[in-house]
Amino acid sequence: MRTLLNFIIRYSSWFVYAFYIVLSCVLLFNNNPYQQSVYLTSANSISTSIYGVTSDITSYIALRKTNEELQSNNALLEKRVVSLEQELKKYKGMAADTSGSNVGARYEYVLASVLNNSTRHPRNYFNIDKGYEDGIRPGMGVAGHNGVVGIVNVTGAHTSRIISLLNVTQHFSVKLKDTPYVGTLTWKGNDPTVAYVEEIPKHVKFKIGESVVTSGYSTTFPEGIDVGKVIGQVKAADDNYFTLKIKLSSDFRNLTSVRVIKDNLKPQLDNLEKYDNPDERP
Q: Positive or negative CA dihedral for 252, 261, 215, 211?
């Protein structure tokens, strides 16, 4: 208490000065309309700026949660699209439901964040924050917001390594969106925005800007996931085929989140492929 009193006595002149300053301001702004208007305008401007900064900070903090919710909704919508496309083919006689169950339940999606990524090497990989305890298994396809990005290579409990599409050892079964003709997608190891579709029959007609999508001829990716768009043609070694140059849909330099695709029919289909003789199948 003595310390507080000593402090007040020592700085009493400053307290008196501050009191008169505050009193003068109150009298000035209360009794003079012009000064009062200036004060209110300035105070409002300052408070608005403070609220704006506070709002920006709050919005930024909530951005991650909002982004995760959007990703989740997007995954549900994509699953629904795949379901509708499969059912449409079923009713048109283009595909059969071999499982005897709802085709819409064939594919599931697991959302994941990219932990690190590389694009500068001939054989690129990236890691995600989901592993075998999250249902991830080697061989599952991985897609970003705009299209195919890779295949699961190795899984840990809560992380997995993905072989990027930007890997010269990888090949993907793709097709021109509006044709039944299938080709092989490869990356040549240089430009991370460009890949090539090989083994397209020479008689197939195509247009610049035409979409290239997954063929669905494997358990890795369902049919119709975007891969890129045609930007040119390259002469192939075999005169019966040609090679298409495509602009990849995914921006691998800014890959932050992905969806891992789980095919619920994969175990059954893999089991069938073990038997070369149909009579030996269970």
A: negative
Token pair recorded at residue 51 = 């609220």
Tens of pLDDT, residue by residue over 211-253, are: 999 998 888 999 999 999 999 998 777 778 889 999 999 999 9
Largest CA distance in the chain: 105
CB neighbours of residue 138 within 10 Å: 13
Whole-model pTM? 0.63
Reduced 3-state DSSP string for the chain: CHHHHHHHHHCHHHHHHHHHHHHHHHHHHHHCHHHHHHHHHHHHHHHHHHHHHHHHHHHHHHHHHHHHHHHHHHHHHHHHHHHHHHHHHHHHCCCCCCCCCCHHHCEEEEEEEEEEECCCCCEEEEEECCCHHHCCCCCCEEECCCCEEEEEEEECCCCEEEEEEEECCCCEEEEECCCCCEEEEECCCCCCCEEEEEEEECCCCCCCCCEEEECCCCCCCCCCCEEEEEEEEECCCCCCEEEEEEEECCCHHHCCEEEEEEECCHHHHHHHCCCCCHHHCC
Closest by CA position to 112, among listed 263, 262, 257: 257
Q: What digits encode the pLDDT tens for the residues 49-94? A: 665 566 567 656 667 666 776 776 776 676 667 666 666 665 555 4
Model confidence pLDDT, tens digit, residues 7-28? 677 777 777 778 878 777 767 6
Q: Domains (ranges, CATH) in the chain? A: 106-272 (2.40.10.340)
Amino acid at 253: R
87 vs 93: CA distance, rounded Å: 10
Q: Which two tokens stand for residue 259?
A: 């969806």
Report yes or no: 157 and 133 within 8 Å, Cβ to Cβ.
yes
